[in-house]
Write a structure and sequence with these properties.
mainly alpha; rod-shaped; 7 helices
Length: 230
């Protein structure tokens, strides 16, 4: 079956639907390769950061990791936590207070460290999710466009039958052909887009869980350091 020949022999309405689906297909494949490249870069840079991070346990040395703190989600989260830690450390140092009030201050302000890191995490996850809604739209819309072509083709077939007063195969075949080919085009777009969407959605979910664990680890470390002030 030559779907390109059928495309040329199809009605104008079917051709318009198929052109839209072809655009969707090219777009979804472009998103796939772009996201594949982006995720590969994020993974490479994150692994490089984590391999260096595990060798440092001191707050001061963690803050001197340089470019490793701004080229991956883990580094950016650590940087935001360290910056908030420095601000709160300055506040606690000038307002040491009594022992009881100091503990209360530590408890109240240290939560700001977690909030700062979680805000950064939200930004990074949003960055990883770019273009996923577009893929989701292709998954949802493409089968319906194919169905629209199917209904349109069947409608044309029945209109031809009514106009000519005959149900001969040569009369209904063009409409049925349009109906079937648009369905094929719709599925050829929706199936790969669904696979791409699920692959990247799973990767984003994994990063989300890993970043949550990283935030908890950093927060426990910084909170302990913060509590020792004063």
């Amino acid at each position: 079956m030559n779907i390109f020949r059928i495309f040329l022999e199809s009605s104008l309405a079917a051709q318009i639907i198929m052109i839209i689906l072809i655009i969707f297909s090219i777009w979804s494949w472009a998103i796939f390769f772009k996201k594949l490249f982006n995720f590969s870069g994020v993974k490479r840079k994150s692994n490089r950061f984590l391999s260096t991070y595990h060798l440092h346990h001191d707050i001061k040395t963690l803050g001197n990791l340089g470019s490793l703190l701004n080229d991956n989600p883990y580094g950016k989260i650590l940087w935001s936590g360290l910056e908030e830690f420095k601000k709160l450390k300055a506040v606690a140092s000038v307002n040491p207070g009594e022992q009881g009030s100091h503990k209360q201050l530590v408890h109240e302000l240290s939560d700001n460290i977690r909030l700062a890191m979680e805000r950064t995490k939200i930004t990074e996850i949003a960055s990883l999710e770019i273009h996923l809604p577009t893929l989701g739209t292709f998954v949802s819309v493409s089968p319906f466009l194919g169905l629209l072509g199917t209904v349109w083709g069947i409608m044309e077939a029945f209109l031809d039958i009514r106009a000519r007063g005959s149900a001969h195969i040569t009369i209904v075949a063009p409409g049925i052909s349009d109906a079937l080919i648009t369905t094929v085009y719709g599925l050829l777009v929706a199936i790969p887009a669904l696979i791409f969407y699920n692959i990247f959605r799973s990767r984003v979910s994994n990063y989300d869980a890993e970043l949550d664990k990283f935030i908890s680890e950093i927060f426990a470390h910084l909170r302990k350091e913060f509590a020792s002030i004063g």
